[in-house]
Design a protein that fits this description.
With 140 residues, the chain is of the alpha+beta class. The protein is built from four helices and five strands; from the N terminus they run αβααββαββ. It has helices spanning 2-6, 25-39, 44-64, 111-118; strands at 12-19, 69-76, 82-89, 121-127, 130-138. It has a five-stranded antiparallel sheet, covered by helices on one side. α2 packs antiparallel against α3 (44-64) and α3 packs antiparallel against α4. The longest helix is centred in the middle third of the chain and has 21 residues, at 44-64. It is globular, with a radius of gyration of 16 Å.
Length: 140
């Protein structure tokens, strides 16, 4: 009975976007995500932070990982509102493989730092089908 009382039921709305493994994926999916975030009536500052986190995680998947990749956005509405951003890919590309997007030399290596700075929590989950990188932003 105690377990039932301690259980928290999380109600969430969720959208899933397959990510094409092409350089244009970031801008295409970011536009679609902007529409979803607007439909969720998020504060403009939160939406902009979320779009930057989304862009960085998608870029990471397109540049450094194998396809297929998927973006999952979920908004928990259980009193402790949180926006969760997840990008799942098939894992790191083999060493020596050319990335789909050739980043400028001076613009490399900051993406996950940006995600960390903008999120309340973030991390990586390795599983049998690949890797999921996630970030949570407070939506309250």
């Amino acid at each position: 009975m105690t377990a039932q009382l301690d259980a928290v039921v999380r109600e969430a709305v969720e959208y899933v976007f397959p990510l094409p493994h092409i350089p244009e994926a970031v801008s295409v999916v970011r536009r679609r995500a902007r529409t979803v975030l607007a439909d969720w009536n998020l504060a403009p500052d939160l939406a902009e932070d979320a779009l930057l986190v989304i862009s960085e995680l998608i870029t990471n998947a397109v540049v450094h990982a194998l396809p297929p990749a998927v973006l999952r956005l979920s908004l928990a509405v259980d009193g402790c509102n949180a926006l969760r951003v997840e990008v799942t890919d098939a894992g790191p590309a083999a060493p020596g493989c050319r990335p789909v997007v050739e980043p400028c030399a001076g613009e490399r290596g900051r993406g996950l730092g940006i995600v960390t700075a903008l999120s309340a929590g973030c991390g990586t989950r390795v599983h049998t089908s690949g890797i999921t990188r996630w970030a949570e932003l407070p939506a309250a």
